[in-house]
Amino acid sequence: MHRLFIALRPPLPMRRKLLDIMDGVEGARWQDDEQLHLTIRYVGAVERPIAEDIAVALQAVHAPALDLALAGVGRFDTGSRGRALWAGVTPHDAVAALHRKVDHALVRAGLPPKVARSCRTSPLPGSTGRRGRSTPSSPRTPR
């Protein structure tokens, strides 16, 4: 089984800002720069033949380059079980359009459609090793 998600790699200036922000979070376990990404769609665990079908379907997805910018950071409070950080991005409409294209390609490959809660934010990897119910806290705009 392969655990898959479709994501974009943020541009270097955005990754640098995110890494600077992460330095200020006490007690967090961080991944390195290579782990920073914007999740477009989480797929989950699939067998290799399905993963190959997904790869073929995604080759048909075309979209203009996105000029991403940070649009705030915050955390999902997960009670006593930990917390997860998120980073918002703009332009939301362009990211949402890409999400729809990816979702349509995955549906053509046989996966069920997925309704995204939001394409504006992406969890910051390694910000928590614990799971729990989450609710967003107040966003902070990066400098």
Provide an overview of this structure.
This protein has a single domain, classed as Cyclic phosphodiesterase (Cyclic Phosphodiesterase, Chain: A, Alpha-Beta Complex), CATH 3.90.1140. It contains three helices and six strands. It is of the alpha+beta class and 143 residues long.
Query: What helical percentage do the residues reach?
Result: 25-40%
Q: For the CA atoms, what is the radius of gyration?
A: 16 Å
How would you name the CATH homologous superfamily?
Answer: Cyclic phosphodiesterase
Percent strand equals: 25-35%
Strand and helix order: EHEHEEHEE
Number of helical regions? 3
Strand order of the largest sheet: 5-4-3-6
Tell me the number of structural domains.
1
Instruction: Please state the second-level CATH architecture.
Output: Alpha-Beta Complex
How would you sum up the global shape? globular
- The low-confidence parts are 127-143
Q: Would you tell me the structural class of the helices and strands?
A: alpha+beta
